[in-house]
Structure to design on (166 residues):
């Protein structure tokens, strides 16, 4: 039986001003309930330990400290047609974390069938969140599903969707 080792991590949240007094509450609600939080020069640091059998296992548990749902997949006859994955990232013009669509992919042969729209709609429900964000160069895909533009950066856009909430 392998012994557990303790691995020490410091997670750095840069480009994040500490303007919100409730940052600790935001991180706790996101599942980060065992980190020491400190800041210096508008950079936030989360420091924590993980006991694990290997560094790889420790990294996986550290990564999943901020709880995210599993990716949503579109499958037909055991064939993967597409999927959507999520992440936590800083909201536009804010210093708090927001829930973002990290990746949306539909197989070339399955495009034009409405799969991307159905995956986005599925991402909007049952998350228990007040809003969802995406960074994209295809804003029309989201706008036709009632998403609102929050920011433009060159040819890319940040869009936001107000959800039913918690």
């Amino acid at each position: 039986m392998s012994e557990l080792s303790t691995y020490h991590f410091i997670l750095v949240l840069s480009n994040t001003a500490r303007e919100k007094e409730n940052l600790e509450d935001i991180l706790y609600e996101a599942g980060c309930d065992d980190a020491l939080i400190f800041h210096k020069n508008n950079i936030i640091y989360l420091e924590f330990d993980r006991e694990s059998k290997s560094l790889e296992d420790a990294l996986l548990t550290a990564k999943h400290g901020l709880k995210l749902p599993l990716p949503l997949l579109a499958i037909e006859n055991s064939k993967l047609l597409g999927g959507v994955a999520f992440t936590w990232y800083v909201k536009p013009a804010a210093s708090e974390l927001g829930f973002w669509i990290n990746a949306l992919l539909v197989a070339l042969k399955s495009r034009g069938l409405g799969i991307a729209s159905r995956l986005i709609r599925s991402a909007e429900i049952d998350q228990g969140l007040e809003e969802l964000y995406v960074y994209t160069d295809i804003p029309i895909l989201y706008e036709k599903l009632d998403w609102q533009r929050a920011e433009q950066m060159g040819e890319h856009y940040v869009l936001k969707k107000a959800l039913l909430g918690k």
About this structure: Residues 81 and 166 are 30 Å apart (CA to CA). The longest helix spans residues 115-124.
